[in-house]
Amino acid sequence: MDHAPAPLLPGRSVAIVHEWFGVTGGSENVFVAISEVLPQAKPFVLWRDEGAHRADGFRESWLARTPLRHAKPLALPVMPLAWRTLTREDFDVVISSSHAFAHTVKMGSAEHTRYLSYIHSPARYVWSPDFDGRGSGGLLTVPRRALQAADVRLSRHVHSYAANSREVQARIRRFWNRDARVINPPVDVAYFAEAPAAQRAQERGYLLGAGRWIPYKNFDLIIAIADAARMPLVIAGSGPEEERLRRAAAAARVPVTFEHQPSRERLRELYWGARALLFPAHEDFGIIPVEAQACGTPVLGVRRGGLLETVVDGDTGFLIDSMDPADYAAALQHLDKLDNHRIAAHAWNFSTDVFKANVAAWVTDDAS
Predict the structure, then answer these.
(1) Strand 233-238 relative to strand 206-212: parallel, antiparallel, unpaired?
(2) What pTM was estimated for this model as a whole?
(3) Helical segments of the chain, H only
(4) What per-residue string of b and e applies to 262-285 under the rule 16 or more CB within 10 Å gives b?
(5) Is residue 213 a contact partner of residue 258, using CB atoms and an 8 Å limit?
(6) How far apart (Å, rounded) are the C-alpha atoms in residues 170 and 179?
(7) CA distances from 326 to 208, 210, 321, 332 (A)
(8) CA-to-CA distance for 294 and 347, rounded, in angstroms?
(9) Among residues 143, 91, 146, which one has the least CA distance to residue 116?
């Protein structure tokens, strides 16, 4: 007879906090999954974006009542203050989901409250402006050093960190001089592993690029790779680079099709119909490559960042050391050596159930 697992932290008051809560996103999925691990916890966010239905019942900060909720760069310098004035309640355990300043939250003294923080990344626009263009603008150039100092000073009370990847674990060590355990974020492997009816009898006939059409995602390189390989390409997503990418696609010698803002169902169909996902981007972790592998689709990407953890080179895809389209085109010639079932099985290492089990172990170990 199966028994439900014992509830975590019985008899203790728990709060979980997150930055702003958008409509969709990997960080939001993490927060929701943590809230399911600790259903008794009170959830707090800076604000909820319009249409963020999964955030119903989340408590918002006073920033939600100001125009700053619509101007994240302007709100950034006051976020630490918002996290210190979020509520007058004290809690026994506070768990933050942070990609900006949520890890600086305080809801009780460090002597009486245990603080755990799950880090998606130290704020890129504060710590890595060369990587994230949002931090290279004039508004943040002057206060960046002050924000970095505040970020370190205001987070000394955190007892335990978890990082979403080894890449982020290294940044936590470099920027904050703190250790962290790695807990990869949850991916809805069960959903993507189920083949859509339309794909069950079809051949995989094109290369796929998916994600936000912004510079560091390197969609121009994806087009060049497909062109070098003489293989048709589908580009799925949306973003400010669309016009430039459409011009590049028009100059290519292979068919390039754009799928603008595909639904989740349509994206699953695209994964299942692709010969390979092209992903030459340096990501903290990267949800899209795991979703593709759940569909049995191999990944070709750059040998950096999260792909080092999610792709097994030569087994579930190929990792390339260069940004030369010819190198990727050469690797595509070896796709027949990969087993689609083996690729799909690998993706289960990053399922939501695995994430929840790892979070439960973290909380049990470090919140007691």
Answers:
(1) parallel
(2) 0.91
(3) 26-37, 72-75, 79-84, 124-127, 138-141, 144-153, 166-171, 189-193, 219-229, 242-251, 264-273, 287-294, 307-310, 325-332, 340-347, 352-366
(4) beeeebbbbbbbbbbbbbbbbbbb
(5) no
(6) 9
(7) 17, 20, 12, 10
(8) 5
(9) 91
| Residue 214: Cβ-neighbour burial (10 angstroms; 0-12, 13-18, 19+) | middle
List CB contacts of 4: < 8 A, sequence separation 6 or more: none
For residue 140, is pLDDT > 80?
Answer: no
Give the tokens for residue 37.
């691990």
**Confidence class for position 4, pLDDT limits 50, 70, 90:** low
Report which of 263, 271, 324, 264 is spatially closest to residue 293, judged by C-alpha positions. 271
d(CA 189, CA 338): 20
Give the residue-averaged pLDDT of 59-77: 90
Question: Measured between alpha carbons, how far is 106 from 85 in angstroms, rounded to an integer?
Answer: 8
Select from 53, 36, 100 the least CA-distant residue to 355: 36
Structure confidence by residue, pLDDT tens digits, 163-220:
999 999 999 999 999 999 999 999 999 999 999 876 655 678 899 999 999 999 999 9
Average pLDDT, the chain: 91
Q: Tell me which residue has tokens 């290369």.
A: 207
Write the DSSP string, 194-260.
SPPGGGTT----EEEEEEE-SGGG-HHHHHHHHHHHT--EEEEEE-TTHHHHHHHHHHSSS-EEEEE
Answer yes or no: is pLDDT of 135 > 60.
Answer: no
Residue indicated by tokens 């409250």: 113
* 266-306 pLDDT tens trace: 999 999 999 999 999 999 999 999 999 999 999 999 999 99
- To the nearest 10°, report the CA torsion of 219, 294, 4, 95: -20
- Name the burial class of residue 149, with classes exposed (0-12), middle (13-18) and buried (19+) by CB atoms within 10 angstroms of its CB: exposed
With a cut of 50, say whether residue 1 has pLDDT above it.
no
